[in-house]
Write a structure and sequence with these properties.
heterodimer, A: alpha+beta, B: four-stranded mixed sheet, 4 helices, binds adenosine-5'-triphosphate, binds magnesium ion
Chain lengths: ~180, ~120
């Protein structure tokens, strides 16, 4: 498993919750020895009880409701790297999930392919806007699909040329902050 | 370096080509992209298709993602659907196979039988 796949899963939760805008911020700081990400959406949100329940689906007795694995698996991955996750949510407003890992921890999963992850989400869910930020030791790469769609007018992100441009733009932006 | 200015140029070019486009007669490349571990293998395959189709400027081909196609042990799976609805299913795809499928199947019109689901079963 890679962290980018957890991110894909958590962002998918936001999409299912009806978000119009999903903001992802990934921060890597090797001096503080932290890798963290925050996913914030303006979807339907969760009640307090729901937020508490989603951390621990393995506690039985909750047979009335199916609880998924996306959040528990992320929690497990973060804790394995001496980290944690935190969810805050408000019904009708949105949800924010924060996850933190110890960057140098031997059991920290690799971040994985962020360019591919963002490309997949942006082209698959054209009606949803994404604000993506990734910073490594202060160097930041930012993509705002609202800006991209503004430039595109009505031209679809699924067009081959546009899709290829986006993939290269993301790949090069990631490479630039990595060195 | 790719820039937003370059995107603007792409848009202008596409806007002027709009009348020539006939997407409803397109061949579709359908890639199974589940939001689970399988996505890890499917992603480089999708990137290879996008790169190869974009480079060769195959305007009659569109790339579509879908959820899990089903047969997990044969993932990544890619279906190529021609304008008549005829479908060829490729299994256990890799970026290298994807490039070959673009060259042979999409450009030359010859499906690569040894990569299809029929050969795998
Ligand atoms: N961003 C969100 N907004 C609203 N509800 C959410 C959000 N994220 C999670 N939830 C709720 O928490 C539940 C559990 O999420 P989780 O990702 O753990 O599992 P799942 O999405 O149900 O299933 P899986 O991810 O295993 O396919 C979701 O079904 C949903 O009801
Ligand atoms: Mg989920």
């Amino acid at each position: 498993m890679e962290i980018s796949l957890h991110i894909l899963d958590i962002m998918h939760n936001s999409i299912v919750a009806g978000a119009a805008l999903v903001e992802l911020t990934v921060i890597e700081d090797t001096k503080k020895d932290i890798l963290s990400f925050t996913i914030k959406d303006n979807g339907k949100g969760m009640s307090k009880e729901m937020v508490e329940a989603v951390y621990s689906p393995f506690t039985t007795g909750r047979t009335t409701r199916k609880v998924g694995l996306g959040i528990p698996l992320l929690k497990q991955a973060a804790e394995a790297a001496d980290g944690s996750i935190k969810i805050t949510s408000e019904l009708g407003v949105g949800t924010e999930l924060f996850a933190q890992f110890t960057h140098s921890h031997i059991d920290r999963q690799p971040l994985g392919d962020m360019a591919g992850t963002m490309h997949q989400l942006i082209t698959a869910f054209e009606d949803i806007d994404f604000l993506y930020r990734h910073s490594i030791n202060g160097k930041e790469f930012l993509v705002d699909t609202r800006e991209i769609k503004n430039i595109l007018g009505g031209v679809s992100l699924k067009e081959n040329e546009v899709s290829l441009w986006l993939l290269n733009y993301l790949t090069e932006g990631e490479a630039e902050i990595s060195d | 370096m790719k820039s937003l200015a370059e995107l603007e140029a792409i848009r202008q070019k596409m806007a002027s080509n709009v009348s020539m486009r006939k997407d409803d007669h397109a061949t579709r490349v359908v890639i199974g992209m589940a939001t689970c571990g399988i996505a890890a293998g499917a992603r480089p395959v999708m990137s290879a298709f996008i790169e190869e189709i974009g480079k060769r400027n195959l305007e009659h081909v569109s790339v579509v993602q879908t959820g899990c196609i089903g047969v997990c042990r044969l993932e990544p799976i890619v279906e190529i659907v021609n304008p008549d609805g005829e479908k060829v299913t490729y299994v256990k795809m890799t970026p290298e196979k994807a490039r070959q499928v673009v060259a042979e199947h999409l450009v030359n019109g010859r499906p690569i039988n040894e990569y299809t689901i029929g050969a795998a079963e």
